[in-house]
Amino acid sequence: MTKAAMDRVTLQDGESANIVSENIEQLKTIFPEVFGERGVDFDTLRQLLGDAGVIDESEEKYGFHWHGKKKARQIALTPSMGTLLPCPEESLDWDTTQNLFIEGDNLEVLKLLQKSYAGKVKMIFIDPPYNTGKDFIYPDNFQDNLDTYLRYTGQKDSEGLKVSSNTENSGRLHTNWLNMMYPRMMLARNLLAKDGAIFIAIDDSEAPRLRIICDEIFGEENLVANIIWQHSVQPKGYSGIFSVHHNHILMYRKSEDFELMSLERTDDDNKAYSNPDNDPKGDWRTGDVRNALYRKNLKYPITTPSGKIINPPDNGWRWSKETLQSKISSGEIFFSEDETRIIRKIYLADLDGRTPETIWFAKDSGTTRSGVKELKIAFDGEVPFDTVKPTELIKRMMKISGVREGDVVLDFFAGSGSTGVAVFDDERGRFILVQLPEDIDESKPHGIAAKKLGLSKISDITKDRLKRSSVSRAPSNSGFKFFKLSNSNIRAWSPDRSDLEQTLLSHQEHLIEGRSEQDILYELLIKRGIDLAAPIECKSISGKNVYSIGFGVLLVCLDEAITKADTENLAQGILKWHEELKPASDSHVFFRDSAFSDDVAKANMAAILEQNGISHVRSL
Fold it and tell me: Is the pTM of this model over 0.90?
């Protein structure tokens, strides 16, 4: 459908036209990337709705395209076969914290977070790897475990040894980077709340292409600003080239529901305000009375008290004749002594903070050097990471995004953990951080420092900094739950066609041997769309552990043996606890499938629970 056709639909009279128009608007909200200058790209829409058969590079039409773009989109739509394994022993304040830190490939982690956090993330900040001409680590098929994708991405060879990722000479530098970023941006948009925003730090190399793909994914109308951040104040001593002192920070909102918040005013912001005439409303400064845009209806002459005429400026006045006269009567607008000029007062008392600007200077937002200084303090003089964003920069983003108590702040290129520390400092939001367990290059100064600290991977740096930064903080704003990306606890069906009988016997137990009850519980949270920070309580019922998740939304018994004799007492105990918990929504009850002695025991359990109001009974 072309734009002209869509306009005709919008302008038609009658209910049918209105319905179509509403459908188009709803479609644009859900899938902004399918709308281009020629209207709806139905091939893209079909792909987003699950029709993988449309991936045909030769069919791509006008627009920003590169080799592999459709495949990159399909990667984002392909479900993950992984899970997140809880690691309480590597966490801090496991039982009380609402913060999450996840070690693993962020593409797979973003997929796993979709059910629990879609539409719930208030702010995302990422500082992705800049395109320096190297290969990028972006697996597109998670099948087995961490080692699988480390080998797949070239971090390890088949023997488990680290291999290098050297300069790419294929001429596909932009392509590789775009294929890494595109699916992650698609998944990130799904996680954003309607009133949420994303900030992406980038340098000049890929800023133009990043803006194009973000316009496509988030919608061009949702670009809030291209912020220029002064990341350094020290001139570089190279001759013949510019000394670069800035990065871009592209800011996009999820929808029109986002509200840009003002920044706090400083003494420096207020120094232009004074009260030379003892105005009862307090300090003021002069302001413009001219309109920035041409307004023919606002062009009219003004007559002063003594009868002089002041002609309108070229674009007209800022207000209607009636409004301007009212401001003159109140004293907000007055005339110069010779009555040749009209002057406006802007009162400090009327200002609600300071409007954010598109240039963020180092004095307000910190620099890379100040970020390194923060890291050096945290690690007792050592600097184990080389590209550190200052916490002041991220806290500024949180302020203008309106992050409130309990809001989720996500960073899926966590690096040294600056976003987590900023959330600790702000004391309002809670964070989800994701970092690949990438080996640290021990040949570089930061790598040598990391080795001194006993840290071998970037995710180790993140975790250690979060622990160090939690010291002396209030329990309500400290700690983190630590998870590791791994393969699912539920065994995939992998038949040996030469011996199907043995295959069937070996798959009687659906859960992987060696996984703990806690591992399985957290996979249930992920697959059922429950917050990973939801409270979990355990109670012994009829000699078996039963878990309540989210105050009874989920009830789980993973005991390995449930006989016919156990069924009645266990079911009645679950029902009694369910009555005490009074969950806000329908409860789901899960059991280990192989635990039941036979089908009769399983059927009895389901029947007792269903007869007493719990209709959602499942087995794993």
Answer: no
Would you call 539 exposed, middle or buried from its count of C-beta atoms within 10 A (0-12, 13-18, 19+)?
middle
Rounded Cα distance between 332 and 343, Å, is 8
Single-letter residue type at 516: S
> What residues in the chain have per-residue pLDDT under 70?
1-22, 37-38, 52-62, 132-173, 492-509
Report the chain's C-alpha Rg in angstroms. 30
Structure tokens at 141: 């098929």
Separation of first and last alpha carbons in the chain? 46
Q: Go through the domains of the chain in sequence order and give each one's CATH number.
A: 3-63 (no CATH), 85-263+356-487 (3.40.50.150), 267-350 (no CATH), 500-619 (no CATH)
Instruction: Using alpha carbons, select from 281, 321, 325 the residue that is nearest to residue 299.
Output: 321
Q: Compute the distance between CA of residue 440 and CA of residue 453 in angstroms, rounded to an integer.
A: 12
Q: Which of helix, strand or coil describes residue 414?
A: coil
Which residue reads 């932009």 in tokens? 174
Rounded Cα gap, residues 332 and 346, in angstroms:
8
Q: Which two tokens stand for residue 598?
A: 């036979």
Residue pair 588/578 in contact (Cβ under 8 Å)? The answer is no
Element (H or E) spanning 362, and its range? helix 362-365
List the beta bridge partners of residue 411.
433
Residue 496: exposed, middle, or buried by beta-carbon count in 10 A (0-12, 13-18, 19+)? exposed
Give the pLDDT score at 620.
83
CA-CA distance, 439 to 220, in Å (whole number)? 37
Distance from C-alpha of 436 to C-alpha of 414, rounded to nearest angstrom: 9
Rounded distance between C-alpha atoms, residue 339 and residue 305, angstroms: 8
pLDDT for the residue 22: 64
Tell me the C-alpha distance between 186 and 190, whole Å.
Answer: 7
Give the number of other Cβ atoms within 10 Å of residue 468's Cβ: 14
Torsion 174-176-182-187 (CA) sign: negative
d(C-alpha 181, C-alpha 69), whole Å: 11
Assess contact for 359 and 228: CB atoms under 8 A: yes
Measured CA to CA, the distance from residue 409 to residue 373 in angstroms comes to 23
Lookup: tokens for 476: 């309500």
At residue 418, φ and ψ (nearest 5 deg) are -60, -35
Q: Cβ contacts of residue 220 below 8 Å, gap of 6+? A: none
The sign of the dihedral angle between the CA atoms of 253, 254, 259, 263 is: negative
CB atoms within 10 A of CB 124: 26
Mean per-residue pLDDT of the chain? 85
**For residue 334, what are the β-bridge partners?**
343
Number of residues that this document lists for the chain = 620
Contact yes or no for 20/9 (Cβ under 8 A) = yes
Please state, in angstroms and rounded to a whole number, the distance separating the CA atoms of residues 66 and 44.
15
Q: How far, in Å, CA of 302 to CA of 290, rounded?
A: 13
